Amino acid sequence: MRVLVVDAYPATHPDAAIVGEAVAMLETQGNQVDYLSLVIDEFGTTMTADERTAYETDEPLIADEAKASAARVQSADALLFCYPTTLFGVPPLLKGWLERVMVMGVAFVFDKKHRVRPGLTNVRRIGAITTTPHSRSATMRARDLGYRTFMRTFRLNCHPLCRGTFVRMPTGAPAARYTGRLGRSLRSWR
Known about the structure:
Helix content is 35%, strand content 22%. The chain contains 7 helices and 7 strands. The protein has helices spanning 17-28, 49-54, 64-74, 92-101, 136-141, 145-153, 175-186; strands at residues 2-7, 32-37, 78-84, 108-110, 116-118, 125-132, 163-170. Strands 2-1-3-6-7 form a 5-stranded parallel beta sheet, with helices on both faces. A two-stranded antiparallel sheet has the order 4-5. A hairpin with a 5-residue loop joins strand 4 (108-110) and strand 5.
């Protein structure tokens, strides 16, 4: 399976090693892993005025970095998002990537009756791995924005039988603690 790992962890983040663990586990299972670091690639977080103007046209992808990311997404069988939870949700860098890359013609299309239909029917598995400083009860009170973003909203753009994996771990957890949990969560990614 071709897995695109989208990494939104800064290199200096104490939990950034979790991404390397996930990539190693996926490769051990025989998956082809395409690694995309939003920090290293310096992906811009905001749409330019030209991108915003083009957003509602038939050609919404005008930036080279967005076109390259869209091509990688369209060639993947699975997507794994790795990010540190920020204010109970997705960090601005990853949110900006989603807004600039998951546009009409990539994430969704319109049918003949002008109804929205999934555009990522090639994606049969999505997942998110996040570390959070918040307790589970605090996250639930805040309506669990990260889970809702990926497992509910984003999943609607994928294949109708797309399976999801969401792993939330406390910030600063020892490596041994998250290695076992990651292994159990990613075991079926083949």
